Amino acid sequence: MTLLFLDYASVLVFALSGAMVASRAQLDIVGFFFVACLTAVGGGTVRDLLLDRNPVFWVGNPTPLAVACLAALLVFFTAHLLESRYRAIEWLDAIALAVAVAAGAGVAQSLDQAPAIVIVMGVATGTLGGLMRDVVCNEVPMVLRQGELYVTAAFAGAAAALIASTFFTESFAPLLACIAVTFILRAGSLVFGWRLPVYKARPPRQ
């Protein structure tokens, strides 16, 4: 039940961020629906396919698509009220990232996958929907922005879930640890400018 809630929460927030990006691209309502649904279920779809979960979470129960479409409809009529849509996208994406990484890592753990697979599934679930959204809407993908803590935050959050699971038997404790670590790192990157070193080309030695 906890994992199902996380899936739905990530679907909702990612759909809102996808619709926000669609508003910046000035798409029509069908475009809003498409981008919101793609963003909302993209990462979870890849996760379920790689883990051979049958059916994929939104195929077995299409409610996530309805949630995503309602979110798109809401944004279609209200996005113009925001002073900075891009800033809203960044924060919605940060929240969705934290929740989706926990959902992905939690599903992998529930299937008794190896630690490396748990981390990969957490990162994939958290990042691929946003990557698809940005590519389709011709935006610079957030996952590739220079030095920002994005994939790093997802990786650290999934690792935190693994570490917490060795100390706590309650299923929600590792998920909370994952959400907290992922969101704190991503928020720190947005607010305080936390960065990783970026490669800089140097002239060849003579």
Short characterization:
This protein is mostly helical and 206 residues long. The chain contains eight helices and no strands.
Give the key terms.
single chain, 206 residues, mainly alpha, 8 helices
Biggest pleated-sheet summary: none
Work out the helix count: 8
Strand content: under 5%
Q: What proportion of the residues is helical, as a percent range? A: over 70%
Q: Which shape, going by the Cα principal axes?
A: globular
- Low-pLDDT segments: none
Number of strands: 0
Q: Kindly report how far apart the N and C termini lie.
A: 63 Å
C-alpha Rg (nearest Å): 17 Å
Mean pLDDT across all amino acids: 93
What sequence of helices (H) and strands (E) makes up the elements?
HHHHHHHH
Task: Briefly note the structural class of the backbone.
Answer: mainly alpha
Describe this structure in words.
With 206 residues, the protein is mainly α. The protein has helices spanning 2-24, 29-50, 57-60, 63-78, 85-110, 115-136, 151-165, 172-191. Helix 1 (2-24) packs antiparallel against helix 2 (29-50), helix 2 packs antiparallel against helix 4 and helix 5 packs parallel to helix 7. The termini are far apart. 47% of the residues are buried. The model has no long low-confidence stretch (mean pLDDT 93).
Write the topology of this structure:
Elements: H1 2-24, H2 29-50, H3 57-60, H4 63-78, H5 85-110, H6 115-136, H7 151-165, H8 172-191
Helix pairs in contact: 1-2, 1-4, 1-5, 1-6, 2-4, 2-6, 5-6, 5-7, 5-8, 6-7, 7-8
